Amino acid sequence: MRVLDYWRKWVRKFKKSKKDAFVPISGGKADVFSPLTYHNPCISKMRSVVERVIADREVTFQKLELVILDAQSGQDVKDDFDIQDTLSQLANGLNYLLLVTDRPDFYEDFVYDMYEENGLIVQHAPKSVCERVRGNFVLDFEREGEAPKESMLRPGVIYVPIYKKPWEIGENLDIKVPVGYNTLVIEGVLS
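Given the sequence above, the corresponding structure tokens read:
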């Protein structure tokens, strides 16, 4: 079974839960952002977003060293769906992938399929060593926790929090993506 087929099957399984997953909570008169309840509205466009961000930072997809900072254990199953969806979008063409996780068994099938289909050895490391990981692009799927580690904000590293800071969709369907401490406006990804 090809890697994409595996992930498509997994995506279909959770398709029903996706419908209401991508809206911030409403707190009275105005929407309230909370990293504990926020669902990123742009997960389905993650490959386009990543390509635009690395192009802005003048990094090619072939030189991309992707680090996925896994969700905490006990997070919502929809977060696992977001991670799986993101990995399925980014799987083709990767030359380096590191999963920083305390639950490597969860990714066992993905790791095996990536090796069989693409020849890519997916590395994984425990979260206790995430400060010393190699990589130039970090996708942080944690909801709670402190601000990004200093090592993730060193020069040459692109740090993108998926839930810790809200992503906004502008008037022209532009996406305002938090990159490190800045915000990058990406045009033309949403239809």
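Confidence is low (pLDDT under 50) at residues 13-30. Try to locate this feature in the token string yourself.
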